[in-house]
Amino acid sequence: MTRTAARATRTPPTPGARRRRRSDSVAAAAFTSPAFIGLTAFTLFPIVMSVVVSLWSWPAFGDREFLGLANYTDLLTSRQFRRVIVNTVLYTGLYLPLNIIVSLGLAIWISTMRRGRQTLRVIFFIPVVTPIVAQVLVWRLMYQPGGAIAGVLAPLGIEAPNFLGDSSWAMISMVVMSVWQGFGYNMLIFSAALDQIPQSVQDAASVDGVTPLQRFRSVTLPMISPMMFFATTMTLITSFQVFAQPYLLTGGGPGNATETLVLFIYREGFSAFSLGSAAAAGWFLFALILLVTLVQFLGQKKWVHYDS
Fold first, then answer.
1. Which of 29, 75, 92, 286 is the most exposed, fewest CB within 10 Å of its CB?
2. What is d(CA 211, CA 219) in angstroms, rounded to the nearest whole number?
3. How far apart are CA 247 and CA 242, in angstroms?
């Protein structure tokens, strides 16, 4: 009865209150519209158009023809496309563990130092912010037959291989350069995670007579596992989208040995002007990234510890 009476005696909003409410709604729409317009123009519309284009024979010049799923089936039956997928998976399989191991190892080493931590972190982060073109030029010079690496190996009686011209070495050379270029980012993430481990926990493990290796496995890894999951997932996603390294360092060669999915999409779209095939390949890339990301999230329960 009390609620009914209160509802019956509730006074309607005054005209001034209604005007203020409308004014607030207009202001909110005005402030959010630029972001919404940008999201629609540069994200939602391209996504929808890529689906449409992937179903057509869509040359940059000439007549368009609806093909349905023919672009997708042609890619699946293409030996070159299958090779590109294998190259991308191989690159990710080599780059991901090396990046994590190097980043975590350096972060642990820096965490044991009493002085110079910030300086070392800045130094190791420099390759991340250095333009990739400049880094590729330096690495190409080092990989040349008469380059710096060959000069170091020659006095040791070791003949340097053809790093960029040999298909068995080109992928390894690209991975090494990529690890150098990208390890600093994960190193900072792991350093921040290590700094959050309470010293009392480390001291308690030392008092219990735990060896450094046991302490790392039983204390350090579980406590930084959320950050490791984040770093692993982001590194996995970015490695599947690698483009600059194969494009600038090897050109995808020799013999398509280092051609990756994004480089294939670029060439299909901007060299062969086959926009439909490029769009279909882009959706294959999306499906591949989505699949491995889902596997990551489903498997995190076995090794990621969010409790403190």
1. 29
2. 11
3. 9
Residue 13 has pLDDT above 70, yes or no: no
- The predicted-structure confidence for 132-158, as pLDDT tens digits, reads as follows 999 999 999 999 988 899 999 999 889
Least confident span in 48-52, 212-216, 253-257: 212-216
Domain count for the chain: 2
Which string of DSSP letters, residue by residue, matches 117-132?
HHHHHHHHHHHHHS-H
Q: Are residues 162 and 242 in the same domain?
A: yes
Alpha-carbon torsion angle 294, 299, 304, 307, nearest 10: 90
What is d(CA 288, CA 221) in angstroms, rounded to the nearest whole number? 28
For residues 179 and 32, state if they share a domain: no
Kindly state whether residues 236 and 144 are assigned to the same domain. Answer: yes
Whether residue 22 is found in the same domain as residue 94: no
Query: Strand 65-66 vs strand 56-57: parallel, antiparallel, or unpaired?
Result: antiparallel
d(CA 107, CA 9): 66
Q: Whats the size of the chain, residue-wise? A: 308
The verdict on 113 and 192 lying in the same domain is yes
User: Residue 43 belongs to what domain range?
Assistant: 11-54
Once rounded to an integer, what is the mean pLDDT over residues 272-278? 91
CATH code of the domain in which 236 resides: 1.10.3720.10
